[in-house]
Amino acid sequence: MLTKRISPFVSDLSLQNLATTRFPELSLSSDSLPAGMQRIIIGPNQLLTPHFHPDTNETTICLRGAGIVGIVEPDTNCNNPIGSKLVESCLVANDVVFLPQGYPHYFKNTSSIHEMELLLTFENFNFNVITVADIIKQLPNTVTKAVNESVPNAGHAPIINY
């Protein structure tokens, strides 16, 4: 089991430190939430698949349950501009996570019994979601084979025979 890590993306939301502000009226979505918000329930031992948003930042609050948020971020310790690392952090009720535009991420419920409920908020109300599966299924077989054989963090995009 992962221990709670300090991450630049995850913080604890203390309810005592919240201040209320009057926001303008927002149009409601089909689930009665204001535009730009989504409520997601992830069942026990389920995963919200890896994806990213090319046109908006996301801020997510864990309302109940516990799990892991995984974020693929640039590896600033790399000696070259190409490289990434996976940062996984525990996420529990009242934690807030900021996911920058374009960063691939996922949420995983680590409980085998309880649901994990998240409130997702987006700066751009008309945002897009691109999953890793969306990308892979569009690739020709030769490219998929090349991806499977590539060496991560080689300093450039890998060149592979096909």
- Secondary structure: number of strands: 10
The number of helices is 2
- The H-and-E topology, N to C, reads as EEEEEEEEEEHH
When the domains are counted, the total is: 1
Which percent range describes the beta-strand content? Answer: 35-45%
Q: Give helix % range.
A: under 10%
Supply Rg.
18 Å
**Oligomeric state of shown chains:** single chain
Residue stretches low in confidence (pLDDT < 50, at least 5 long) are 1-8, 13-24
CATH topology name:
Jelly Rolls
Mean pLDDT: 76
Could you give me the name of the CATH homologous superfamily? Jelly Rolls
Structural class: mainly beta
What would CATH call the class?
A: Mainly Beta
Identify the strand order in the major beta sheet: 1-7-4-9-2
Q: Largest sheet at a glance?
A: 5 strands, antiparallel
Query: What is the correct CATH architecture?
Result: Sandwich
Shape: globular
The end-to-end distance, rounded to whole angstroms, is 40 Å
How would you explain this protein's 3D organization?
The protein is mainly β and 162 residues long. It has a single domain (34-149), classed as Jelly Rolls (Sandwich), CATH 2.60.120. Helix content is 10%, strand content 36%. It has 2 helices and 10 strands; from the N terminus they run E-E-E-E-E-E-E-E-E-E-H-H. The protein has helices at 132-138, 141-149, and strands at residues 10-12, 37-42, 47-52, 58-64, 66-74, 84-92, 95-99, 105-109, 116-122, 130-131. A 5-stranded antiparallel β-sheet has the order 1-7-4-9-2, with no helix packed on it. The protein has a 5-stranded antiparallel β-sheet with strand order 6-5-8-3-10. It is globular, with a radius of gyration of 18 Å. It starts with 9 loop residues before the first strand and ends in a 13-residue tail after the last helix.
